[in-house]
Amino acid sequence: MTVKTMQSAEVKELLEKVAGFDMSGGNERMKKIVHRVMHDIFQIVEDFDVTPEEFWSAVYYVGELGANGEAALLAPGLGMDRYLDIRQDAEDEEAGLAGGTPRTIEGPLYVAGAPISDSFARMDDGSSKEAEVVLVKGQVTDESGAPLAHAVVDIWHADTKGAYSYFDQSQSEYNLRRRITTDAEGRYAAQSIMPSGYGCPPEGSTQKLLNHLGRHGQRPAHIHYFVSKPGYKHLTTQINIAGDKYTYDDFAFATREELVVAASHVEQSETAGQHGVTGPITEVEFNVTLVATDKPELQERHNRPRALETGTA
Ligand SMILES: [Fe+2]
Hints:
By secondary structure, the protein is α/β, with parallel strands linked by helices. It contains 7 helices and 14 strands. It has a 6-stranded mixed β-sheet, with no helix packed on it. Strands 2, 3, 6, 12, 13 and 14 form a 6-stranded mixed β-sheet that branches. A two-stranded antiparallel sheet has the order 7-8. The two termini are 44 Å apart. The mean pLDDT is 96. Bound molecules: fe (ii) ion.
């Protein structure tokens, strides 16, 4: 079929009615965006000669995606989260706020309200006996290298099976989730266990689409961070552990060169010793540079639905 109907008065009128252009109520921005979205979908149907069978399988796919709770998993897989970061980086550049530790995607697995402690925390509940013990440490500074005391370093990561507490109900409450405030020298440290990378559920909706694209749905081992302090731009980032098969092949496109961190085995870590942790341990060091800003809206994480977080959209 090669019919072209997009330029017809009938389709134009249909799209305007779909978007409520002839109605006085509603939200003007929403109307414009829905009009554009539907126009572009109609155009895709025309340009690719999408069959009714293909169209309806897509509609039911969206329903299944929602029922599986995978919409926020498919989004990074399709580069959306990375794209929003690219836009924010460009906005920072324009506003003279570039620099500091690079941001990267948050992902959908943050849980608000993790226990908070000064300068050091143990993040794991001790239940993973076989796990590799890790000391995550670093210093938070400003762009001149001056230490930032009382910055909040909010860390979360997966367990050895690639699962996150709260979403994985078999883990204890807030397992592998902690907030640590930096000491007078801007330092933080956490004892934890080495996370495993993980993949999209093999039978899930996200992997189903990735299969059609010839793509895997795997992420390397990584550790998520929010770092904040009044007067500085809120940082959302994560580190990828070097040497993972997927370090540079993350399905969610979160890897950035400056965020790849080596894990090194030491017989006794000086930092761990200062916090009473003795014996062989794997050290992961991640230093953070925050960028000063007087704009309050940039000092906090943006609103989005997050587990156990109140006051978000
Ligand atoms: Fe993650």
